[in-house]
Amino acid sequence: MTMNENDIRIDKDGIWYYRGAHMFRKDILCIFFEHLKRDDSGRYFIELNGEICGLEVEDTAFVVTAVCKIQDACGSETLEILLSDDRKEALDAGTLAVGKDNVLYCRVKNNRFPARFTRKSYYQLAEFIEPDGDENEFCVVFDGRKYPIALASHNHDNGGNHVR
Asked: Partners of 141 in the beta sheet?
């Protein structure tokens, strides 16, 4: 059975669909996330067992579902994010950018992919957001450091190209 590029779709909330049916099996989604790639033009695809299947991605393949502050034994703080693949990683606050409709984005997976914040995770991060100079500029502050939140370009083609 061959799959067409539009057979698998990821909506803006990170929900995966196969031919319109919600894909809910975590074991299958984990395999897909592990083999997820992007080409030079920003198109997403899964490369598995020598086969390539293109994906239709509404915005980003990864979604930030939660944010929490972690403090190590020495007192250093890190903001940890939980992604839609159920993996946790440290937030790279230097990649934060706000896009169309005030949606917040960052880069994940060693800067390989953009990720969209859910409303819930955005509100969790808001605890660390402060005004930065002009009235429309903001930054994230933690561990004694300020990280400006950039304005993303509005090039929405192929999901997430607007995030640096």
From this structure: 146
